[in-house]
């Protein structure tokens, strides 16, 4: 739609420029012809100077309209526009005055000004310019034919006909232009809006975000982005029906709009996901706006909300900002999406801002910048390929962080286990998506492929020397305490300590989150499962410490 507007405005601009050029040249030729024939006594030097001045003025004016007028299509008139119209009307009066006054045959030039005014600014502006010219034309006829009733009647009647024509042209052409502009505006609305929610659509969101970032660069401003997703929307659709789901989307769209400021825009990004662009907004202010939205939705009564897992309709929100958390549009969208996924991974109904925990951890144990970039690349690849694995990894990192803190590991080991948690499933990059997301029973070949992800992970980082300390943790996080795990059937203390910790966190999250091939357990059921397998699959001492940690941090779930 933006390309269509550009083409349309370019054509309108070309018409206006042609009309202005013809009008100005015609007016100057009229004056020049009068001076040439009436003042033969003027010498060649004076004529040359006059022509040079006229040409200079012409060139300056044409340059001005080619720059200024180009940006004045479909805009409200400003001081310079009024000034230009006044100059054009003044030029018209001068032409009429010097070419016969009431008898002038150049009064028809007034039609150009009316057409220009109507096309450029619509009916009201065109009518106003026509009235001014009508007054000028009739005034000249009355002033310069007074005392001669026959001439007054002759020229006044002609001028009345011309005046009526000017007025009708201004009204008809102005109404057409206004109608066309209103129609174009409606088309833009249709092209830019989501039909169901009335919010902007994904295409407009991308366009607006791109333009906002350009303006932010020019003015050294921040831009924040909110990514929002309705919690358990699929469940709502399944239980209440798709028609009820559409009504829910529409109602939430209105709430989102009500919580936007003047220059903010909110769009339906896709499905039950929304995005809001907040120009000139810090991340801290964006978080406040996100919390206002979250609270507004949580406190609104929705039909059928009692059937939701949390007995309410809630929304999860991810926040990121430019240029603090991202250096371009693509990265801003990705970081906001990552923050949203983190919010949804931890009990939903929350606002999460983007923060690269991995970056801080790596710097804490002096991992080089280039290695950090490699790690982020691996994690982004996992995110793109399998959103479950990415969300699962994020949750395991948090569990390991709390776990390490609760048992008093050193700061170095705390950082190391969190980085290892980020890396523990990178070997799944080598597994086809259809196997990772398969809902039915895996074949023996597929199961072996899945089991091999520990070695595949080691192979991926084998050439990265600064990550050598993490190889054994990645390789052995599926070993069992009783020696029946894989790949090396290590048992008890043979299994690296941090790997034993990750095994517990990894298994607990796998049990308590939705996966393609199993039913989610509650936290209480997950704890029972850990205890049932303590001494066989898990280190019994670490199991109890992990459960103590869960109790300590239960309010964070």
Automatic annotation (TrEMBL):
Question: What's the name of the protein?
Answer: Ggdef/hd domain protein
Task: Give the matching CDD domains.
Answer: GGDEF, HDc
Q: Does the keyword rRNA-binding apply?
A: no
Keywords from UniProt, A to Z, are: Membrane, Transmembrane, Transmembrane helix
Where does the HD domain start and stop, copy by copy?
Answer: 389-511
InterPro entries tied to this protein:
GGDEF_dom, HD/PDEase_dom, HD_domain, HD_GYP_dom, Nucleotide_cyclase, Rev_trsase/Diguanyl_cyclase
- Which residues belong to any copy of the HD-GYP domain? 367-557
Q: Where are the transmembrane segments?
A: 12-32, 44-67, 79-98, 128-148, 160-177
Entries under NCBIfam families matching the protein:
GGDEF
Q: Which residues form a coiled coil?
A: none
Q: Which PANTHER family match?
A: CYCLIC DI-GMP PHOSPHODIESTERASE PA4108, CYCLIC DI-GMP PHOSPHODIESTERASE PA4108-RELATED
Q: Which residue intervals define the domain GGDEF in the entry? A: 221-356
- Pfam family of this protein, just one? GGDEF
The cross-references to Gene3D superfamilies, in alphabetical order and at most eight, read:
3.30.70.270, Hypothetical protein af1432
């Amino acid at each position: 739609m933006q390309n269509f507007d550009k083409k349309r405005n370019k054509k309108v601009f070309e018409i206006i420029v042609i009309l202005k050029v013809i009008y100005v040249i015609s007016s100057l030729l009229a004056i020049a012809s009068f001076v040439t024939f009436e003042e033969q006594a003027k010498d060649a030097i004076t004529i040359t100077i006059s022509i040079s001045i006229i040409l200079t003025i012409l060139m300056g004016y044409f340059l001005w309209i080619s720059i200024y007028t180009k940006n004045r299509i479909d805009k409200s008139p400003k001081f310079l526009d009024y000034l230009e119209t006044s100059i054009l009307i003044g030029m018209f009066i001068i032409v009429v005055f010097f070419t016969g006054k009431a008898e002038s045959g150049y009064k028809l030039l007034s039609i150009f000004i009316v057409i220009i005014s109507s096309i450029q600014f619509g009916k009201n502006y065109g009518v106003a310019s026509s009235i001014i010219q009508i007054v000028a034309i009739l005034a000249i006829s009355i002033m310069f034919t007074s005392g001669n009733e026959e001439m007054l009647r002759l020229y006044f009647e002609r001028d009345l006909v011309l005046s009526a024509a000017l007025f009708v042209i201004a009204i008809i052409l102005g109404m057409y232009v206004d109608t066309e502009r209103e129609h174009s505006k409606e088309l833009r609305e249709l092209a830019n809006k989501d039909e169901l929610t009335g919010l902007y659509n994904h295409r407009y969101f991308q366009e607006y975000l791109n333009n906002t970032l350009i303006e932010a660069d020019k003015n050294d401003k921040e831009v924040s982005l909110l990514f929002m997703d309705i919690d358990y929307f699929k469940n709502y659709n399944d239980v209440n029906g798709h028609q009820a789901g559409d009504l829910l989307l529409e109602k939430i769209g209105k709430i989102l709009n009500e919580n936007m400021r003047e220059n903010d825009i909110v769009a339906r990004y896709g499905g039950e996901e929304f995005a809001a662009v907040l120009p000139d907004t810090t991340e801290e202010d964006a978080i406040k706006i996100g919390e206002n939205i979250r609270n507004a939705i949580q406190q609104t009564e929705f039909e059928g909300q009692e059937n939701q897992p949390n007995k309410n309709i809630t929304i999860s929100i991810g926040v990121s900002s430019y240029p603090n958390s991202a250096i371009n549009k693509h990265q801003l969208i990705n970081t906001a999406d990552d923050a949203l996924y983190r919010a949804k991974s931890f009990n939903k109904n929350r606002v999460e801002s983007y923060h690269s925990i991995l970056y801080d951890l790596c710097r804490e144990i002096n991992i080089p910048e280039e290695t950090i970039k490699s790690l982020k690349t691996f994690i982004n690849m996992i995110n793109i390929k399998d959103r479950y694995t990415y969300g699962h990894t994020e949750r395991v990192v948090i569990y390991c962080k709390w776990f390490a803190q609760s048992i008093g590991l050193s700061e170095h080991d705390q950082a190391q286990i969190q980085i290892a948690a980020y890396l523990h499933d990178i070997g799944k990059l080598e597994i086809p998506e259809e196997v990772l997301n398969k809902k039915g029973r895996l074949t023996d070949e597929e199961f072996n492929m899945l089991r091999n992800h520990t070695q595949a992970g080691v192979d991926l980082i084998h050439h990265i020397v600064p990550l050598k300390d993490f190889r054994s943790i990645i390789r052995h996080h599926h070993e069992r305490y009783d020696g029946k795990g894989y790949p090396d059937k290590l048992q008890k203390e043979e299994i690296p300590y941090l790997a034993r910790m990750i095994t517990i966190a990894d298994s607990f999250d796998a049990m308590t989150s939705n996966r393609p091939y199993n039913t989610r357990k509650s936290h209480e059921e997950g704890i029972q499962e850990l205890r049932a397998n303590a001494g066989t699959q898990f280190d019994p001492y670490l199991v109890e410490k992990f459960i103590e940690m869960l109790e300590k941090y239960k309010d964070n779930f």
